[in-house]
Amino acid sequence: MPLVRGTEFRSYPQAYSVLNFAYFVIIYLLLYYIMLLYYTVFVIVISTVDGGWDAWAEWTQCSVTCGHGIQRRSRTCTNPAPSNGGAVCKGDGEEVKKCSPMSCAGES
Question: Which CATH superfamily is domain 50-108 in?
Answer without folding.
Answer: Thrombospondin type-1 (TSP1) repeat (2.20.100.10)
